[in-house]
Amino acid sequence: MRTRAAAILIQNDSIALIERHRAGRHYFSFPGGGVDAGETPEQAVVREVHEELGLHVRVIRQVAEFWYRGNRQMHFLVEQTGGEFGTGHGDEFSGNYDALRGTFLPLWMPVSDLLTQPVQPREVAALVQQSLRTSWPQEPVMITIQG
Description:
Blueprint: E1 3-11, E2 14-22, E3 25-29, E4 32-34, H1 41-53, E5 55-68, E6 71-83, E7 103-110, E8 119-120, H2 122-133, E9 141-145
Parallel strand pairs: 1-6, 3-8, 5-9
Antiparallel strand pairs: 1-2, 1-4, 2-3, 2-7, 5-6
């Protein structure tokens, strides 16, 4: 089992995402990555956002726990505290990265486009849109997809 920590970062009616082209697929994912040994999911999401987006963030709270094929993804609402968008320095942005892992392009997408674009996981994209219309859940929403 692998645990992934992902960020939900919204500013000016747009959300930070990573555009991916991988194995013939085109999709968008929430910035984040694997939780390292000795690291909390909250620490991992802060580190991953810095590596992928070049931003410093503060975790507000966990809003979703998504299970897919036995892998756990924890999604955290975060806010920017510093840094410059697009200056990520993680391995995926270096010239030495394995091309089989696909491309990574950080971008801002209008929140209104979340469900019209191939944003993964869909269920979390829908939760974000719903929460912006109403309010964020008080407890993390549990989502399990068999696959």
